[in-house]
Amino acid sequence: MPTGTLEVIIAEGRRLKDKDTVGQSDPYVEIYLHHKYKQRTTTIQNTNDPVWNERFTFNLHPKDDTIHFDVYDSDVGGKDAIGNGKVKLKNVFDDGKFDDWVKLPAHLGLSNHGDIHVIMTFTPS
């Protein structure tokens, strides 16, 4: 895998699964290549269709091949998982960019917990 810089924009979410019994979710996204180093968006209050438009930068190393997106509902007592998505970085390397909706499949992939719009740009070092 090539090395370089990966710019990631978490643009928005749509139809995120509601984890709250009253009201709507307070979603945010954790983005990471490795579990030890995560970045996250701000929390958007009371919506299942959030707009973040937040930019993150990752330095890619030769072993990096997948970027992960964990979407949570922020609650007073902690966080509830809404869904997890991932993108193989080969999709970004081939064109130098990626602009698509990433699905958040439910357990076993039988249904969908929503989508997040992700825009990525790769700059080789």
List the keywords.
single chain; 125 residues; 1 helix; mainly beta; Immunoglobulin-like; 5% helix; C2 domain-containing protein; four-stranded antiparallel sheet
Condensed summary:
The chain has 125 residues and is mainly beta. Helix content is 5%, strand content 61%. The strands form 2 sheets. The chain has a 4-stranded antiparallel β-sheet with strand order 4-1-8-7.
Textual characterization of the structure:
The chain has 125 residues and is mostly beta strands. The protein has a single domain (4-124), classed as C2 domain (Immunoglobulin-like), CATH 2.60.40.150. The protein has 1 helix and 8 strands. The chain has one helix spanning 90-95, and strands spanning 4-14, 27-34, 37-40, 51-60, 66-75, 78-88, 97-105, 112-124. The strands form 2 sheets. A 4-stranded antiparallel sheet has the order 4-1-8-7. A 4-stranded antiparallel sheet has the order 3-2-5-6. The longest helix has 6 residues, at 90-95. The chain is elongated and about 50 Å long. InterPro entries: C2_dom (IPR000008), C2_domain_sf (IPR035892). This is C2 domain-containing protein. It comes from Adineta steineri. Keywords: Calcium, Metal-binding.
